[in-house]
Design brief:
This protein is mainly α. The chain has a domain of 132 residues: Regulator of G-protein Signalling 4, domain 2 (Orthogonal Bundle). Helix 4 packs antiparallel against helix 5 and helix 5 runs antiparallel to helix 6. The radius of gyration is 33 Å and the shape is elongated.
């Protein structure tokens, strides 16, 4: 649109734009770009939403399979972070969560590389879980307790191995079967199984 007639609206508009500072024109261009992005945003949002739904569905399928795997073996349960959390919650109802806490503390202890930290951690674990009348004393025999005490004098990453193994066996033979029969786990397996059958019916 162009006009060189006096009083032409287009001419006055062009003059008005020319009189604007460059920064104003740059801002106008920026606003135009942003408006263009916003106009396309619903479509982008729809795509992102679909992607996140697929990821959520995948996570649910994975977690369902994981829940059902816990009953295969105690090892499968301990390998799963959510399995350990569920088992810990169950042990709290039996007031025996110190066994799992001790086992987890030993697993963390084995990863310690510094000799200084190894010694201080070993003493802390022993005082909290192993020594007689410890605040969170685990159920191990006197002989294992004494072997562990002697191991502290030259603390290595293996100094709790025997006590940890005894505690693990106790959980596997005693608490783990009860966990599998518990109402909370039975409910979790029903939900996992229904999600699995729902998935099959959609395919």
């Amino acid at each position: 649109m162009s006009c060189w007639m006096p009083g032409c609206p287009a001419l006055s508009m062009c003059r008005g734009l020319a009189a604007l500072p460059i920064t104003c024109l740059e801002r106008a261009k920026d606003l135009k770009t942003r408006l263009g992005i916003l106009l396309h945003k619903p479509e982008l949002g729809h795509k992102t939403g679909s992607s996140s739904k697929l990821q959520l569905g995948s996570r649910r399928r994975d977690s369902s399979r994981e829940v059902l795997e816990w009953r295969e073996s105690f090892d499968q349960l301990l390998k799963s972070k959510s399995g350990v959390n569920a088992f810990h919650t169950f042990l709290k109802t039996e007031f025996s969560e110190e066994n799992l806490d001790f086992w987890l503390a030993c697993e963390d202890f084995k990863k310690t590389r510094s000799k200084t930290k190894l010694a201080s951690k070993a003493n802390r674990i022993f005082e909290e879980f192993v020594q007689s009348e410890a605040p969170r004393e685990v159920n191990i025999d006197h002989e294992t307790r004494e072997i562990t005490r002697k191991n502290l004098s030259g603390a290595t990453s293996a100094c709790f191995n025997e006590a940890q193994a005894k505690t693990r066996t106790l959980m596997e033979k005693d608490s783990y079967p009860r966990f599998l029969k518990s109402a909370s786990y039975q409910d979790m397996t029903r939900q996992a199984a229904s999600r699995g059958s729902s998935k099959r019916s959609h395919t």
